[in-house]
Structures are given as structure tokens and as C-alpha cells.
Amino acid sequence: MSNSKGNFKKAMRPIDVWGLALGAIIGWGCFVLPGSAFLPKAGPLGTALGMLIGAFLIIVIALSYGYLIRKFPVSGGEFIYTKEAIGKRNAFVCGWGMILAYWSLIPLNATALALISRYLFPGIVQQGLLYQIAGWDVYAGEVILASAFIIFMAIINIRGIKEAAWLQTAIALTLVGCICIITFIVMGTADWSNLTPGFPDGRRWWKGVFSIVAMAPWAFIGFDCIPQSAEEYNFSHKKSTGIMISAILVAAILYIAVCAVTAVGLKPWQELLADRNNWPTGYVVRNTVGLVGIIILGIAMFCAVVSGMNAFYISTSRLMYAMANEGSLPQWFGQLSPKYGTPKHAILFTMAASLFAPWFGREILLWIVDMTSVGAAIVFGYTTISAAILAKRKNDRKQMWIGFIGCLFSVFFLSLLIIPGMPGYLSFQSRVVLLIWIGIGLLFYLKIRKTYVRKQD
Which residue among 125, 129, 184, 311 is buried most deeply as judged by most CB within 10 Å? Predict the structure, then answer.
């Protein structure tokens, strides 16, 4: 079994771990995608069904995570599980996918702060137009704002998991509270007939539902942050399964609630989307609740952005730390801060890599995130089949079948994304980014294989 070479401080309570997972799951997309992706693809009823089906499939996958956390309570999560069950080559593939999926969500959430400012404080941050990339105006003010938050969250994480966990918990609870307030107010004054039709006109209902299911790996990525900090729990690892399931269920309810708020307000939802308003959710809240509502919504979005950045800082740095200790990354990434006991170098590297992103505009980042579901589905597949293999070795038939079924679900997710004609098939730009990512990973693997794979096999 792989063990950590460092001594992390055990400072994370169950509520902190729950806040870590929920804050990672609910990000900017919960507020932006209802009008730009969820409702256009599936409608109000189709979105709700797709989210619930996706949550169920992810919960089955999470059961394997809970089993493996109990068996391997160390940082590194899926990377370590795959190494122990299948071998180091497959572990590298799994870890490479995880790094991209986790890291890309840090700068994406940071740039979402600019989107919030455009609606809450129009014209204040949009100063110093630099250039335009893929139709997105890049302003110096927005670059400075995003960069400042990337640096701030790095400092918080370097100072220790206790401070980062406390911040994550407070923000996650505030996020839930704000969404609940907005939902109750809008639903209390809404015309429920605006929710009809339940599915988009001119599209088969099942295609809409499964286009949302295809997004489940992206929508719920974040519950898998829990294994990355397993060495820092101050409670029994047996509780991790329940924490993951509750975070996934709450996240599904929040996604559905924001979509319902967007669809039920002001006018029939198809008419609302036909107006091509830049942000339908914000438009509905502003015109039904008023300025107070848009402020509450802004607070919720801010909490989602900051909690997402924080969670993926924690997860990315712990993953890189674990990979360094296994020889798949330079040892520099595996060194802990003598003062704070955190993987300082991994955090600083993640920060430096993230600081490049705000200069390239939001659209390019969206291409990366579009294929994050592919990476997540691959990682889920590796984790569940690893759980099945390890359970078989222990003669645990129940967990073996749970892992096998979870692996089938992961393959199903992947098929929806990479097979032409399927509801969630990737865009051309996302496929290009995916091929580039695979190419870089292959080159890196060829460089390290002699020292990484052959040394200890």
C-alpha cells in the first residue's frame, strides 16, 4: 500500500469535508448554464430528470470511492487506487486526467468573477480593453481581478488546511442559504404555467434528458475532492460515503432549483430564451425580486466561485503531492511547508499555471471545461474498476458488483461524449483540446517511463 511521506495536520471536520465537496460541485455553471445549456437542451422537466438520473449514477460511483477511502486513507485518491489495483501505467493516465480536470476549474472560476461584476457593477471592472479572443473582450481590470483572487486563494491554502476548510464551510453554507432564499421568493410569486412545455419543441424528450445526463461527470465533479484530503480528517473515514452522497443530493437539488427559478419567472421559458438575454437567470431575479434579489444572487455566485477555487486548489495540490511521492512528478512537488505542513510547491505551481489563463479570455477556457467530463468519466471508470478488482481480492462480492456497475455507468457517460451522434457529443474545439491534452500527456509519459514505471515494477 502507498503511504504519504509527509505529516499533514488532521484538522478537517465532517462539515468541512462536506463543504469541500459541495463547494467544488456547485460553481459558476449552476447560475450561467440554466439559460445557455440546460433549458435549451432539455427544458425544465428534462433538466430535472437528467439531473436526478445523473445524480443517481454518480452516487453509485461514489460508493466505490467510499470503499477505497477506507482502504487507502491517503492523499492522491484515484491515482493511488488505480496504482494499487491496475498498475503504474494506468495510474499515470488517471492522474494526468485528474490534474487537467481539477486545475482547469481554478482559472475558470476566477474568470467567472468578471462575469458577476458585469451584471452587479457594470463598467467598473471592464476597464482597459486589451484585445478580443474568440469573441470575448479581455479587459485589464478583469485580468487583475481574476489574478488577485487566484493569488489570494493560493495564500489561504498555503497557510493551512484549517483556514482553508473553515473558509470553505462558511462559503458553502452561505451558498445554500442564498439559493434557498431566491428560490422561495421567486416560486412564491411565479406563474407556474411558465414551466410548460416540460421539454423543448422539436426534439425528442429522451435526447434532452440524456444530454443533461452526459454532463453529470462535469456537473458533479467535486465530490471526488474528498479522497484528496483523506490524510487530514479528524474523524473516521467510514463517514466519507455518507458525506459524499449528501453533497451530491444537495447539489442536484440546487441545480434543479436554479433552473426552475430561471424557467418559471416572468414569461414562458421558451420566450425568455428567445430574447437571447445574456444571462436569463439574472434577468429573472432582477425583474421579479429586484435589486435585493440580484445582490443575493451575486453573493451566491461569489460563494460558488470562491468555494470552487478553494476546493480545487486543495485537490490539485494534494494530487500533485501524491504523484510526486510515487515518482510520476518531480520530488519538488512532494515537499511540505515546514511551517504550515501544506504542499506549498504544488500550490504555487497551480497558482502560476492558473495566472496565465485570464489573459486568454473565457471562451478558450470553456473549450477546456467542455471536455472535462471526458477526463472525469475516465477517472470514474478507473476508480470503480479498481474498487471491483480490490474487492474481488478480498472476496467482497457486494462491493465487487457495485464497482463493476459503477464502471459500466462511467463507460456510459464516456460514450455519450465521444461517440458521434450521441446527445453529449463534444464540440470540435473541445475535441481539439482533448487531443492536445492527450499528446502532451504521451510526451510526458515517454520522458518519465524509465524512472517511473520500470524502477519499481
Answer: 311
d(CA 359, CA 41): 31
Residue with cell 480545487: 312
How far is residue 41's CA from residue 62's CA, in Å, rounded to a whole number? 27
Cell readout for 377 is 468519466
Question: In a 3-state reduction of DSSP, which class is residue 256?
Answer: helix
In the predicted model, is pLDDT for residue 392 greater than 60?
Answer: yes
Beta bridge partners of 131: 138
Quote the CA–CA distance of 281 and 273 in Å, as a whole number.
Answer: 10
Q: Is residue 6 part of a domain?
A: no
Cβ count within 10 A of residue 383: 29
Kindly state the helix (H) or strand (E) to which residue 133 belongs, with its residue range.
Answer: strand 129-133
In a domain, 213, yes or no: yes
Q: Residue 2: inside a domain, yes or no?
A: no
For residue 206, the Cα-to-chain-centroid distance in whole angstroms is 25
**Interatomic CA distance for residues 332 and 227, integer angstroms:** 22
- Distance in angstroms (rounded) separating the CA atoms of residues 442 and 147: 30
Judge if pTM exceeds 0.90.
no
pLDDT tens-digit readout, 136-187: 788 898 889 889 989 998 998 888 665 666 777 788 888 899 999 999 998 8
Q: Is 439 inside a domain boundary?
A: yes
Residue range(s) defining the domain that contains residue 237: 14-456
Q: How far is CA 371 from CA 317, 360, 375, 376, in A?
A: 21, 18, 7, 9
Q: What is the pLDDT of residue 161?
A: 60
CATH number at residue 424: 1.20.1740.10
**For residue 404, what are the CA distances in angstroms to 69, 348, 388, 391, 415?**
17, 38, 6, 10, 17
- The number of distinct structural domains making up the chain is 1
* Phi, psi at 139, each rounded to 5°: -105, 145
All three cell numbers of 92, joined, read 499515470
How confident is the model over 308-328, as pLDDT tens digits?
888 788 888 888 888 888 888
Give the CA count within 13 Å in the CB-facing half-sphere of 291: 1
Distance CA 97, CA 151 (A): 24
Rounded Cα–Cα distance for residues 304 and 310 (Å): 10
What are the helix (H) ranges across 35-87? Answer: 39-71, 78-85
